[in-house]
Structures are given as C-alpha cells and as structure tokens.
C-alpha cells in the first residue's frame, strides 16, 4: 500500500465536486421553460396564466438552493 492511498486524519473532509449541480440544472430548466412560454404566449397575443408562477418559483428555489450548497463551509 502506498502512502497516498489513505487520507490523513487531520485533513478536513473533501466535499463532492458536483455539489448542487442537479438542482442548478433543474432550476435553470424550469426558469428557462417558463420564460420561453411567457415569450411565446406574449408573441402570439394570448393571456399568460397565473399558474406559471408556481414553476417559476420552484425553479428559482431549486436554483438558489443549488447555488447556496456550493459555497464553502465557514
């Protein structure tokens, strides 16, 4: 066994490299889909449903929680 095979006990735990990436991608997809739906509906002259606020709020929540989980520990 090499000396580099084990992590020394005094080192802090290493966080995973892709922390929060799935939430960021899901949030961006939801926000982008809502914005695209609003633009297409407005271009076609239709009325925009208030039910579009729920996916927008969910997408913003996922995006914010994914970005906040990537910040380093204090």
Architecture blueprint of SSEs:
Blueprint: H1 21-44, H2 53-68
Helix pairs in contact: 1-2
Transmembrane segments: 24-45, 51-69
Keywords: Membrane, Transmembrane, Transmembrane helix
Structure description:
It is a single chain. The chain is mainly α. The chain has a domain at about 20-70. Helix content is about 55%, strand content about 0%. The protein contains 2 helices and no strands. It has helices at about 20-45, 55-70. Helix 1 (about 20-45) packs antiparallel against helix 2 (about 55-70). The longest helix has 24 residues, at about 20-45. The radius of gyration is 20 Å and the shape is rod-shaped. The model has no long low-confidence stretch (mean pLDDT about 90). Keywords: Membrane, Transmembrane, Transmembrane helix.
Coarse structural class? mainly alpha
What is the ordering of alpha helices and beta strands? Answer: HH
| Range of strand content | under 5%
Structure annotation, total helices: 2
Question: Span from first to last CA?
Answer: 34 Å
Q: Based on CA inertia axes, which overall geometry fits?
A: rod-shaped
Average the pLDDT over all residues and give the rounded result: 88
Transmembrane segments: 24-45, 51-69
Keywords: Membrane, Transmembrane, Transmembrane helix
Features:
single chain, 74 residues, mainly alpha, 2 helices, 54% helix, transmembrane, transmembrane helix, membrane
Brief synopsis:
The protein is mostly helical and 74 residues long. It has helices at residues 21-44, 53-68.
